[in-house]
Write a structure and sequence with these properties.
InterPro entries: PEMT/MFAP (IPR024960), Phopholipid_MeTrfase (IPR007318). It is a multi-pass membrane protein. Its EC number is 2.1.1.17, 2.1.1.71. With 235 residues, the chain is mainly α. It contains seven helices and no strands.
């Protein structure tokens, strides 16, 4: 899975408006929610299990790592100097991100296998829902990579490798960050297939980590393309 799992496009990438049904979540009275199911789910999770802790660390570390390294490269060009050109540097970081994400997936799988299954989830319809989510997630991830290419996917714009125009075709006409949400769908599908309550929790942590990453990456990427537009106006 890629580090920069979002559409690296020039400035002007309009974000879809957030749906605001019935005044949004601010109007929800959480005190009236039935938390019995959530409590039951949490009872099946061993928070002191070492494999769970390792998986959480891997989930949080990965986007932190690629954002820190990519911004350092953008400001210093040290990786480009080390590898001789920005393309080789981008490929090196990309392969490192792939290895980190493979380890994240492995650590999550180990945690799911180490902890108990939940009989509520251990049903045929839940199993097939998990398969459907993994098919959808894989479609989003693969189509996103094909649309962006290697450097477009793996933070190439931080290395000065900018895309010529905005990618508007599938899957970016469905969701703005298909690589991130495709990856999340894969993990959710894996949790459902394995009837794994800890898998559900780890997937939620993945989603939160991606949301934080998007908040940092989106504006910074837009700034990069705005600077290019300004340079072109002065040429």
């Amino acid at each position: 899975m890629s580090g920069s799992e979002r559409n690296h496009n020039p400035a002007g990438n309009n974000r879809p408006e957030t749906l605001d049904c019935c005044g949004g979540l601010n109007n929800v009275d959480y005190s009236k929610m039935d938390v019995t199911l959530m409590e039951e789910l949490l009872k099946h999770i061993n928070f002191h299990d070492s494999s769970f802790c390792v998986a959480v660390i891997a989930i949080i570390f990965n986007p932190f790592f690629w954002n820190v390294v990519a911004r350092w490269e953008y400001r210093t060009r040290q990786l480009s100097r080390l590898f001789g050109n920005p393309y080789l540097a981008c490929y090196a970081l990309g392969f490192m991100i792939i290895l980190l994400n493979v380890y994240r997936s492995h650590s999550m799988t180990v945690a799911m296998r180490a902890q108990a299954r939940w009989e509520v989830m251990d049903r045929t319809d839940v199993f097939y829902a998990g398969i459907a989510l993994m098919v959808l997630g894989t479609l989003l991830v693969v189509s996103s990579f094909l649309a962006l290419g290697f450097t477009g996917t793996f933070l190439g714009d931080y290395f000065g490798i900018l895309m010529d125009e905005k990618v508007t075709g599938f899957p970016f006409n469905v969701t703005e960050n298909p690589m991130y949400w495709g990856s999340t769908a894969n993990y959710l599908g894996l949790a459902l297939i394995g009837a794994s309550p800890v898998g559900l929790l780890l997937t939620a942590i993945v989603a939160m980590a991606y949301k934080v990453a998007i908040r940092f990456e989106g504006p910074f990427t837009e700034q990069i393309y705005q600077q290019r537009s300004q340079r072109r106006k002065h040429e």
